[in-house]
Design goal:
With 986 residues, the protein is mainly beta. 12% of the residues lie in helices and 36% in strands. The strands form 13 sheets. Strands 1, 2, 3, 4, 5, 6, 7, 13, 14, 20, 21, 22 and 23 form a 13-stranded mixed sheet that branches. Helix 1 packs antiparallel against helix 2 (152-164).
Length: 986
């Protein structure tokens, strides 16, 4: 369970009413500060106590602290909901700078210098204490300096993490923030990541942008006998046969000669400089290979499974991807209110010379180094022999490519080869056979194979280079095509283009050799199309009717609120707040929570230094008025019966204006009323009770929502008859709309009185939210809400309409009648089919090892919920009765004596104890029952087909011949062959 604290007080706890936050998302990553953002509404008790750069936010999972940081920013939307953005404690390093310094010493002492400078500039709450340091330099001696006044975090990132590697972690113990700088993690999760269980995505990327095949190392500045700098640097000439650089011959042959300068100002011995250069080059010659995968944390659905944590290792197994190793959890994305959607990202970066892992020592061995003192310059050597020539006069005449599918990725197919790419089957292998025909009538054949995964096909290997000739340059180009067989003739670019689903991405590789000849190879991969849309899930039960909340304010001179008044007085020092569901304010002072808002007078301070005479000042005034709505209607000096307060600042005359436009209008908190329930039906698809006159049919937009277009006043309009609205009650209509030009939308109740709710100007061609509050103050016998335009041919698109009681709009939700209609329409065969499909899908996911349960549902009690509880109770009782019966059987077996030993052996054929488990079923029979400490399994042919665990029964497939009764509910067949779901009365 997740919970959140604000300055030590509860901000979010799913067990506490009114302490809700919305869309809370936590991002944790190694060597990053981390981030946490959430939305909170004005009704939250701590809404007004969230302060930027001051408030401390802590996120816990049970008792474990996952995140601690500060509020960085907040954004308020139309409904006054705050979107709060927080950053982790490592970001405190952005609050300080490093003054000019020069340092020589150990890594630990350097980090201590950084922390001390930071702590000297910030308050105590943002200071750090040096913790464990396991990162070291090979000499445990580094040289660092800076005179640019950089931010502390920039120095930590560039001169520690990026330079020396390692991981910078904040560890909080006993109220102290420790900074640990660790070479590696010593923690490992007991949970594994396996393909088919919790592995969601895996991707690899190879890059040669940072490959170098030679390095020229430079050491410390050289000085003369007087200790003065000469302007020259230490090199390796004296220990490298007169050469100031080293190269990797194998890498030079593969990639060409690519030089890099290595900078080691702290190295003063040539042999040490050579050693560092060899180690650095061993890494530089390898391609950068990045592996990224995303997985689900199964501990969210099974408390017995160990949780994932950032900066701990986890075993990863995916045979098709060639991954079987322990990797570090580098990033986690947690959804606090939907833990089943939590994801982790595990990243690995390694270097490879030939696209696979190569040990560092082997690469170092390829670097040719000549040892010994520098000798005299020798005579010019004799001319060397020519290299082995390539094939004279032989060119490439033609290339034939064909394809075949196979279930094996090692044995090439014998038959099934075609010139066109066959339909791909996930889980199988696509083989590509390339036959090169040369001008001397000889041929060569090459094969490549690609595993067809869920995330698209891997590209084929390029064509082999010519024997005995080195590669001078390699050019790679890409093109998009609808044909997977015939290569494109145009559209080739050096950057990867956007490829629509179903199209082919062609790759053209051109090798230019050192003998100035060139060859071109092609590979192609198809972009997989999106899968079919999943079935609609079962609708939840209707929610309980919402209740409006009211805030009442009173004032008093006393701490207990006695002698309270409606408005502040000259002696008022306490304010009382009361939240109720009634518009009538409580009459007793005990119903209010009292807080002191006016402090005691401070001591007389000593006179300050007189300032210079200022220019003649001008008195300014603040005007205050009250009104019925946000347009200032009914402007008045008296707040009685008014909803809005208007403020005008920095006015130069004391006489207040009676012009509403001079004021900024805001709804007073005590006047906020929130209904929540949608009165209009069918607002998702404009069906149910809507009447569309002249307008086009509803148009699908997104997320299964539809919109309609209205225009030409009464030529194209929509309306809905609804129950009679309450006279003198407050209502608000919210909706999204857009138009290509400025148009006036009129909303009216033309059931009887032709009451105009409001006119709204629509001028944006992007979807924009509008809300219109109103009070129906006329007697009615019929209510009809109508949407029309005012004399305009420009259509207005409108969607997601919601009408609710109160004066504060809320997010769109369907009407209760919509929920009921969903339930009523599912009593036929189509419902049975839908339920069967949903259950099968859930069971298949459970077999794969990902079992997801609904965490919490805010619904009223209903017959269907009672049905769910009844099923759980009966299964639990059945499990207990089974255990009781089996225990009786054990007692009977225990009482067997020697005379009944033969009977006991007969029983053993059907009851056995294996590895601490109990097996029921005749030896050799296909069906068996296996009882473990926390699981009862039903096995068929050795495979699990059903089991009891955690008070639940899981079944792979189920079939009921006639009817299914669950408590007081039953699925009963009709005479016409369809199915009823109803309550059964005995």
């Amino acid at each position: 369970m997740y919970r959140v604290e604000l300055d030590g007080e509860t901000l979010y706890d799913p067990r506490l009413k009114d302490y809700d936050i919305f869309t809370p998302k936590l991002k944790l990553e190694v060597n990053k500060a981390g981030a946490f953002d959430f939305k909170v509404y004005p009704s939250h008790p701590l809404y007004n106590r969230i302060f930027k750069l001051k408030s401390v936010i802590e996120v816990y999972q049970d008792s474990t602290l996952l995140f601690r940081g500060r509020v960085l920013d907040d954004e308020m939307d139309f409904n006054k909901a705050k979107m709060v953005i927080c950053e982790g404690e490592l970001a405190y390093f952005n609050d300080s700078i490093l003054r000019p310094y020069e340092f020589t010493g150990s890594v630990k002492d350097y980090l201590k210098l950084i922390i001390n400078q930071h702590n000297s500039q910030v308050q105590a709450a943002r200071r750090f204490t040096l913790g464990n340091v396991t990162v070291t330099d090979p000499n445990d001696y580094i040289v660092r300096s800076d005179r640019t006044y950089p931010k502390t975090w920039d120095v930590v990132e560039s001169k520690l993490i990026k330079s020396l590697g390692g991981y910078l972690m904040v560890r909080r113990e006993n109220g102290i923030n420790y900074i640990d700088y660790l070479e590696d993690s010593n923690r490992k999760s007991l949970q594994k990541i396996e393909l088919g269980k919790n592995l969601l995505d895996l991707a690899t990327q190879s890059s040669a942008s940072e490959v170098y095949t030679a390095i020229l190392p430079l050491g410390a500045e050289l000085t003369n006998e007087e200790g003065e700098e000469t302007g020259e640097r230490l090199t390796i000439e004296s220990v490298n046969g007169g050469k100031d650089f080293i190269q990797d011959d194998e890498a030079v042959q593969k990639y060409g000669f690519i030089m890099k300068v290595g900078d080691w100002k702290d190295v003063t011995i040539a042999s040490n400089l050579l050693r560092k250069a060899r180690q650095e080059l061993a890494q530089l010659v390898r391609l950068s290979l990045t592996l990224e995968l995303t997985a689900v944390d199964l501990s969210m659905i099974d408390v017995n499974i160990d949780e994932f944590r950032v900066f701990e290792y986890v075993d990863v197994l995916s045979e098709p991807h060639g991954v079987n190793e322990s990797l570090l959890v580098e990033k986690m994305e947690l959804n606090l209110t939907s833990p089943a959607n939590n994801k982790i990202t595990i990243g690995r970066q390694q270097k490879s010379l030939t696209e696979t892992q190569i040990e560092t020592d082997k690469v170092v061995g390829n670097i040719q180094v000549i040892k010994g003192p520098k000798g005299d310059k020798g005579d010019p050597g004799a001319k060397g022999n020519d290299g082995i020539p390539g094939k004279d006069g032989v060119g490439l005449k033609s290339t034939a490519i064909d394809y075949a599918l196979s279930t094996s990725g090692t044995a090439k197919p014998v038959n099934g080869w075609t010139a066109s790419v066959p339909s791909l089957i996930k889980g199988q292998y696509l083989w590509t056979r390339t036959v090169w025909a040369y001008t001397d009538n000889t041929t060569e054949t090459g094969y490549s194979v690609t595993y067809i995964s869920k995330d698209g096909n891997s590209g084929s290997d390029g064509l082999p280079g010519k024997d005995g000739v080195g590669i001078k340059t390699t050019t790679i180009e890409y093109a998009n095509s609808t044909n997977g067989v015939t290569k494109p003739t145009t559209g080739w670019t050096t950057t990867i283009p956007s490829v629509p689903n179903g199209n082919y991405l062609w790759t053209r590789t051109t090798w230019t050799y050192t003998d100035n000849t060139a060859e071109t190879g092609y590979s192609v991969a198809r972009m997989g199309a999106n899968g079919p849309k999943g079935d609609q899930g079962i609708k939840g039960d209707p929610g309980a009717d919402g209740k409006s909340q009211y805030v009442h304010i009173r004032y008093s001179a006393n701490a207990n609120g006695s002698n309270m008044t409606d408005t502040p007085q000259s002696n008022t020092v306490y304010i009382g707040l009361a939240n109720t569901t009634s518009p009538t304010a409580p009459a007793t002072n005990a119903s209010y929570t009292w807080s002191k808002f006016k402090g005691e007078p401070g001591q007389q301070g000593s006179p300050g230094i007189p300032g210079a005479p200022g220019a003649d000042g001008q008195t300014t005034y603040t005007w205050v008025k009250y009104a019925d709505n946000d347009k200032g209607t009914g402007i008045s000096d008296n707040p009685e019966g008014k909803l809005y307060i208007g403020l005008a600042f920095n006015k130069t005359i004391p006489t207040e204006s009676d012009t509403a436009s001079d004021y900024t209008w805001s709804l007073m908190p005590q006047n906020m009323e929130i209904g929540g329930a949608n009165i209009l039906t069918g607002t998702r698809k404009f069906d149910m009770d809507w009447v569309l006159r002249g307008t086009s049919k509803p148009i699908s937009d997104d997320n299964d929502f539809y919109y309609v277009e209205i225009s030409d006043t009464w030529q194209n309009f929509i309306f809905q008859n609804i129950p009679i609205v309450e006279k003198n009650s407050k209502y608000i209509i919210g909706f999204f709309a857009k138009a290509k030009d400025k148009v006036i939308l009129e909303i009216k109740d033309d059931g009887v009185n032709n009451f105009v709710v409001d006119h709204v100007e629509i001028s944006s061609n992007e979807w924009k939210y509008y809300s219109v509050p109103f009070i129906q103050n006329k007697d009615e016998t019929k209510t009809r809400i109508t949407f029309v335009t005012r004399q305009s041919e420009v259509p207005i698109a409108i969607k997601k309409i919601k009408m609710e009681k109160g004066n504060q709009s809320t997010d769109w939700s369907p009407a209760l009648k919509d929920f009921q209609a969903e339930l009523d329409n599912k009593a036929d065969n189509e419902y049975v089919t839908e339920v069967t499909t949903t259950l099968n899908t859930t069971i298949e996911e459970a077999i794969d090892g990902i079992r997801t349960e609904v965490e919490k549902v805010y619904t009223a009690k209903s017959e269907f919920e009672t049905y769910q509880e009844t099923v759980s109770t009966q299964i639990e009782q059945t499990s207990e009765q089974f255990n009781f019966t089996f225990n009786e059987l054990i007692e009977q077996i225990t009482k067997l004596d020697d005379d009944t030993q033969s009977q006991f052996m007969e029983i053993v054929k059907y009851i056995r104890f294996v590895n601490g488990n109990i097996i029921l079923g005749q030896v050799g029979n296909e069906l068996e029952l296996k009882i473990q400490n926390n699981r009862i399994q039903f096995l068929q042919g050795g495979a699990e087909v059903a089991y009891f665990s955690n008070n639940k029964l899981y079944v792979t497939d189920g079939e009921f011949i006639n009817s299914l009764k669950l408590g007081n509910f039953a699925f009963m067949p009709r005479e016409n062959g369809s199915l009823d779901f109803k309550k059964v009365v005995n």
